[in-house]
Structures are given as structure tokens and as C-alpha cells.
Amino acid sequence: MAAVLVPELSVSDIGRSLAFYCGVLGFGLRYQRPDEGFAFVDIGGAGLMLDQLGLGRDWVTGALEPPFGRGVNFQFELDDLEPLLRRLAEGRITPFVPVETRTYAVGDRQVTQRQCCVQDPDGYLLRFCESI
Questions:
Q1: Model confidence at 118: pLDDT above 80
Q2: Phi, psi dihedral angles at 98 (to 5 degrees)
Q3: How far is CA 74 from CA 34, 36, 55, 118, 124, in A?
Q4: Is residue 3 part of a domain?
């Protein structure tokens, strides 16, 4: 089944973004349109569209200034957080929020997850977690 929500992130440099998402974080590149500066990437069943500003059509509703994405974070639930943590360490990427274990109320039950947050090259905040 296709994802019902796929955010599209405006990025300043598609090459730099692909190197980060695919090379460092381990996302898979599903397809791209290089002439438009566009790529679709995914990890753990969650997809993102990356679109370089200034190439093709932009969906900009107001002034963009770094860091992009202020006020939002994107959570990706992974089966195992360790491979991502190793890739971050190998890439010398310091998490915005270090690895932590948190318990959240979800209705009438408690859910515990191990998580960390990292910013992409344009400042978007990405939260990766695994259920415990």
C-alpha cells in the first residue's frame, strides 16, 4: 500500500540532500528527475520528496530562510535504531537530540521508544525511533 502522506521538502542543493539522506541516513532512492532537482526517497516504509529550490516548480508560500522547517519534526519509526546510529557516528553527525528513551501516553496506554533527532543539511528536524 502506498503511503497516504508524503511530505515534500524544499532543499537548497539536491545533491547534498541525497548524499545526506541516502549516504548517511540510509534512505533508499526510489526515483528522481534530475532536470527538476527532484528525488523520492524512503526508509522503513516512510517516503519523502526532496525538491531543489529554483529548478522546476517551487511550492513556496513565504520567505524561506535557514533553518528550513522550523516548528515541525518528522518522525520515522525503524525496526532497529542501531544501524542509523552507526551511520551517524561514521559520518561524524552529532544528533540535535542525543539518543534517549522516552515513554509517552497514547490514549489509555504507555508507549516507550528509543529515539534521537538529527537536522538535515537545510535544518529540517528528523526524529528516528524504535519501539521498546
A1: yes
A2: -60, 165
A3: 25, 24, 24, 10, 8
A4: no
